[in-house]
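Researcher: For the record, we're logging two predictions in this thread. I'll number them. Prediction 1 follows.
Model: Prediction 1, sequence and structure:
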Amino acid sequence: MKSAYDVIIRPVISEKSTMDAAEGKYTFVVARTASKPEIRQACEKLFSVKVLKVNTVNYDGKQKRMGVHQGLTSAWKKAVVTIDTDPQPESYMAKGGKSTQTARRYKASIEEFGFGQ
């Protein structure tokens, strides 16, 4: 199993990703082998947020040229993570028919990258 730090490499800071952060959508560069459930678990563990959905896209390397030398840029994977901006404590039926709530507190934004309000 991969560490959460191995799954999420870095945030994508762009004009679009900054505007999407106001709606609870955060963009990250992730490991190319990471699956959506792994990305979800890594975000929930690192940032203490409730993830609603994960969208991913794979980018192939581009042909680049510098003088007579040709090469490819690195291929990478981007994930757009939508978090719950209004987290409510989850309640469920426990053994014996008692209604209980989770004690876990979720944050409404990811402040570590300056995206919070």
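Researcher: Logged. Prediction 2.
Model: Prediction 2, sequence and structure:
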Amino acid sequence: MTQTIHRGLRHVALRVTNIALSRRFYEQLLGFQPVWEPDSGSVYFSSGVDNLALHQIPQEELPAYQPPKAQLLDHLGVILDSPEAVDRMYHDLAPTIRSLGGRIVKELKQHRDGSYSFYFSDPDGNVIQALYEPSISKLKIGLGNED
């Protein structure tokens, strides 16, 4: 058996076509706070636990940029505390998701394992699952010191 040498998958970096639009989406919708902006084409966010980086596709590459017909990364996920929190996010934020350039991808669904979720996309089509999952949602989340 291999020993785990990492503390979790807590950093994701996405290339985006419009950094200003994507920045508003992740700040206003998911509450990420900027922690570092090394240049006008990059912003690094933190949720207090997780880290998300957005990198502007360079302007000279945008005309040749051809997004894949199917997203290779199936989805990202954000964990919510309860099924009620998933419902609140869905009902309260659906108009905001649309106004910030995203869309609802899959409606609310109760899964066989007791989890509950819906899926939405960011302005570049990256799919995000808002998820209540009984075994994960109850964990006390800290800065890498979960027991």
